[in-house]
Specification:
The chain has about 280 residues and is α/β, with parallel strands linked by helices. About 25% of the residues lie in helices and about 15% in strands. The chain has a single domain, classed as Rossmann fold, CATH 3.40.50.1820.
Length: about 280
């Protein structure tokens, strides 16, 4: 069980302890209560040496739950390879939350980590967590919550995104209805559906992305990833796309600690980070 540390206005990297969670706000916007389900947090995973790059990890789970193997395991793997990682516990539909609470959590997480002095801040997510990551990449300047303090003066734009078998549209025939219902409801207006159709929201200012999926994924078809990559290409945004043949939805790293011989996407990601000088 991870402990929790109190939040000062701005934490320094030297204040961080691996596994010690901290809340994103002193007074959380949109909060329906004060339980753990109402208070979004970040949990740091620190490498042996201080890094210039940090990645905020958004676990998947259909905006209904948070999959530990897509949060804790990813963060631990990244820290083992010299990159500081933070697992974001964002708010969920099963506890009554809807957009824009989730985007607010992601934006605040990026700002909080950037305020610590990291040179590069990436955002990474799987499945619905990939949708949240993609949303934060294309709508980083959307006012998802009212600015409260100096952290909110910092840019919410991720320097890069990592999208793992991500939900990237809610439109038929490739959209994931469960994620849609938990995020915006089954009867969301057309304008909100368009806002959440992420390929259509890409601009030239969308950050570079590493994207992967599998052709065997029948839950979130790989066309989600392909359409988003096409949009990035059309807007001349750097990206890397991997569509693997084998592997169903939610496979993660496919191994547990010490993460020996993970799925090839993980080593491909490390190669991509190194190629862009984001690996330290």
């Amino acid at each position: 069980m991870f402990g929790t540390v109190a939040l000062s206005l701005i934490l320094a990297q030297s204040d961080l302890q691996s596994g010690q969670s901290f809340p994103l706000w002193k007074d959380t916007p949109y909060a329906k209560g004060t339980s753990a389900n109402d208070i979004p947090t970040l949990t740091p995973f620190l490498p042996d040496k201080k890094s210039n790059t940090a990645i905020v990890v958004c676990p998947g789970g259909g905006y209904y739950m948070l999959a530990d193997h897509e949060g804790h395991d990813y963060a631990e793997f990244l820290a083992m390879h010299g990159i500081t990682a933070f697992v974001l516990r964002y708010r969920l539909g099963q506890f009554g939350y809807r957009h824009p609470a989730m985007l607010a959590d992601a934006q605040r997480a990026v700002r909080t980590v950037r305020s610590m002095g990291f040179k590069t801040v990436g955002l990474m997510g799987s499945s619905a967590g990939g949708h949240l990551t993609g949303t934060a990449c294309v709508h980083y300047d959307f006012p998802a919550y009212e600015a409260k303090d100096d952290i909110d003066k910092v840019s919410a734009r991720p320097d890069f995104g990592v999208l793992c078998y991500a939900v990237l549209t809610f439109n038929a025939p490739y959209g994931h209805t469960g994620s849609r219902d938990n995020l915006i409801g089954p009867d969301a207006p057309k304008e909100l559906m368009h806002f959440m159709d992420l390929p259509s929201q890409v601009t030239k200012d969308t950050p570079p992305c590493f994207i992967w999926s599998t052709t065997e994924d029948t839950v979130v078809p790989s066309q989600n990833s392909e359409m988003f990559a096409d949009a990035l290409r059309d807007h001349k945004v750097p990206y890397e796309l991997h569509i693997f043949q084998k592997g169903g939805h939610g496979i993660g790293l496919t191994v547990k600690a010490p993460y020996t011989n993970p799925h090839p996407w993980a080593t491909d990601l490390l190669f991509w980070l190194k190629a862009n000088n984001w690996n330290n």
